[in-house]
Amino acid sequence: LTADAAEFAALLEQAKGARVKATLTQAKAEVDREIINLEIKARLAAERQAAGNDTKRYLHELTDYGWDQSAKFVKLFITLNGVQQCQEDAVTVDYTAHSLKLHVSDLNGKDFGLSVNNLLFAIDVAQSYRKLKTDMVAIYLKKAEEGQHWDVLTSIQKRLKQKQDNEMAKDNANPEEALVNIMKKMYNSGDTKTKQVIAKAWTESQEKARFGQDVGGGPGGGLGALGNL
Known about the structure:
Elements: H1 2-14, H2 18-54, E1 59-61, E2 66-69, E3 73-79, E4 91-96, E5 99-107, E6 110-116, E7 123-133, E8 136-143, H3 155-169, H4 175-189, H5 192-210
Parallel strand pairs: 1-6
Antiparallel strand pairs: 2-3, 3-8, 4-5, 5-6, 7-8
């Protein structure tokens, strides 16, 4: 099209008759319009592609997981449908001595994250790792002190359990009422993240109590969501 436009321009310079000039001018104008339209389409396509690449996917915060332990490792199990299809570098875990942060990038167009802070005891960052399984991420936290028993996952769960035990040890203490009071105090004095996690933990404990299940703070218990703190 560019070559055609140049040729029409050259012919116009040589044309003598008015009718010939008008015909060449019209033909050149049509070619010029087509060139401009193609340039606009190309620019818009490039802008859409750039905007798409710059758009950040919404991060879905995960709060549910199970955990277990052996003499050497504390193991977390996070259910996430289809995660085994992700590339290895799309599922990362950042560790510190007392925390971990899982990030799953672009799983069915979404990003997922899980943070667990204030681990009860220190972990060996260098020897901690994760595995991808069918619909699950398994995280293996290497205990800094092998053989050390973790009765809960995080220090905040430990403090909650101690407060609960102290409240229930009082004369005429009602276990359920003691737990309610403790969680209310923690909720009222906590930051936004703490309040969200406590509210979730309390909802879970009420649901499990309704079905006659244990509402304790251990693995699988109704207070498990507090591990995110």
